[in-house]
Amino acid sequence: MKLLTKDSPKQSINNVMVGEGVKIYDFVNLYGCSIDDGSKIGTFVEIQRGASIGKNCKISSHTFICEGVKILDGVFVGHNVSFINDKYPKAVNSDGSMQTDADWEMVETLIGNQVSIGTSATILCGLTIGDGATIGAGSVVTKDVPPGAVVAGNPAKILSSKAY
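RE: above sequence
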């Protein structure tokens, strides 16, 4: 992997570890993250520091991947998918002062190998989505998803299971 920094009107890439054959489209904001071999990052994607993308993943446009999200190999992330890393988000402390990094707890999320996440899904923090699972479009995932499960809805519920 090599370290990539590029700032242009079409890309803001700062301290990103990038593997071989990675394709990054225009209008992205990537910083302090890692993207492994063969992955594709679509237009209008933000990937924050400490997030990692495995090999041969496809991250579709308008997706937000925050700090603490680890995506393993062969994962498809549809358009406009959002990940969350804070169980109790607030702008200010009880005294009205702006929160800083010291005022909240980042909660990690793990996305297994060959997971498919449909368009406009929201993935809450602290979860594990098992290998080969499928998340339906528009789903709000609030609990761990077992390997091979197909889930959909708000909150997402298991609809079926497939061998993985």
